[in-house]
Amino acid sequence: MSAPSFYTRVARLYDALARRGPGVDTLRRTLADTLDPAPGATVVEFGCGTAANRPYLERRVGPAGTYVGVDFSPGVLRVARERGVARGDPGHLVRGDATRPPVRSERVDACCGAFVAGMLADPAAAVRDWADLVGPGGRLGLLDLAATSKAGWRALNPAYRLFVRAGSPPGTAGALAQSPATVQDERVAAAHRALREVCVDVEYRTVVGGFGRVSAGTVE
């Protein structure tokens, strides 16, 4: 089963976890606060899923701003659109690949990716592409999960590894040389390292016991 088909199949379960899972409000607030887009800005989120970050980012950009969500799975975008219609604003939701941004650079002030770096074969290259999209002075942010190194929380790392495996499309584990969680951790580290390389004034936070990793900065 392809990744887009898998996430289409589990879209409503994914939406429930994305909105009501443990610590998700803290994770999403931290991304919006750290990205800190200006009022009136256009923000593009790659791997938007069911657009659970949309209200957090829209509060930042205000009524004059624009949120654009991009995802490769039609199922999660369908849920996002339904939620938007229910609130009277279907929003701007685009099916597309995070590694080939389907948006025009001159219209983007900030972009971010939430829980997407671990799914990309070359997350550092994607981060550099996103930096090119917003250009110098634009804002760039990442929110990801990775194993924690915090004392008192490390005992939960096995549960984290099981969570990553359970959330991976069928066949993922067998196609990787290492466990899905190990690959995700390496990709997350590469993405956040790339952000530090292309941005200035980088702010890095760990939240939710150190499992949540948030980075944001201004592109040079």
Automatic annotation (TrEMBL):
Q: Which EC class is the enzyme in?
A: transferase
Domain of life where this protein originates: Archaea
Read off the SUPFAM superfamilies from this record: S-adenosyl-L-methionine-dependent methyltransferases (SSF53335)
Instruction: State the InterPro entries in the record.
Output: Methyltransf_11 (IPR013216), SAM-dependent_MTases_sf (IPR029063)
A single Gene Ontology biological process assigned to it is: methylation
Keywords on this record?
Answer: Methyltransferase, Transferase
EC numbers for this chain: 2.1.1.-
Question: Which residues belong to any copy of the Methyltransferase type domain?
Answer: 45-140
The UniProt GO MF terms for this protein read:
methyltransferase activity
**Matching Pfam families:** Methyltransf_11
Q: Does the keyword Ribosomal protein apply?
A: no
Entry protein name: Class I SAM-dependent methyltransferase
Organism listed in the record: Halobaculum marinum
